[in-house]
Amino acid sequence: MLSVKDLVVHYGAIRAIRGISFEVNRGEIITLIGSNGAGKTSTLHAVSNILKKTSGSVYFNDTDITIAPPSDIVRSGLVQSPEGRRVFADLSVRDNLEMGAYTRKDRPGIARDMDKVFSLFPRLKERYKQDAGTLSGGEQQMLAIGRALMANPVLLLLDEPSMGLAPILVDEIFSIIETINREGTTILLVEQNAFKALRIANRAYILETGEIVKTGTGADLLADDSVKKAYLGG
User: What CATH number was assigned to the domain covering residues 2-77+153-231?
Assistant: First the structure.
């Protein structure tokens, strides 16, 4: 479904991504884990073409999207929920969700997906008239994911969905990610909570200073002594 080959990204003279390659197959949950500054968010931004690539290629469903405009990438079904939520604070919950569907014209489909988001996140339905800026951090994260779902993604890129959340909300968010995947959406997950991410991942890639240093199934990496020492506190 997604094929990234020899991706290189610079920030000025700094080589942030150093020629990485990876794949995401339909139906999978794939996670990228690594410490701060490893290049996880930069990778997602380069895939979505929010961040300019120095070199390399990105193919989505056998189509070259390496230089495609971000809006066209969203229309193709590759959608990102950003780090830090970035909701539109002065707009209502409902307006935020409708903004997520800005590339779509199918009003009946948009209405169905709005109902689907409300079934996944009942609290958003309770607060649909509230300004997004008045929501709790957990509710804003739900809104950010819901807004991305309104674009009807085939592949959903999630960037640090558990950041800053209380443990009980972290459990809820990860449960919802699994539900989204079971209902047919492929997931590429960037997450610092390596234990939670590896538990739900089919496969994982570990990034260090812009390079992939290890890959394997989620279960294999959970049992890997070097991964335990570096990322799992073991």
Answer: 3.40.50.300
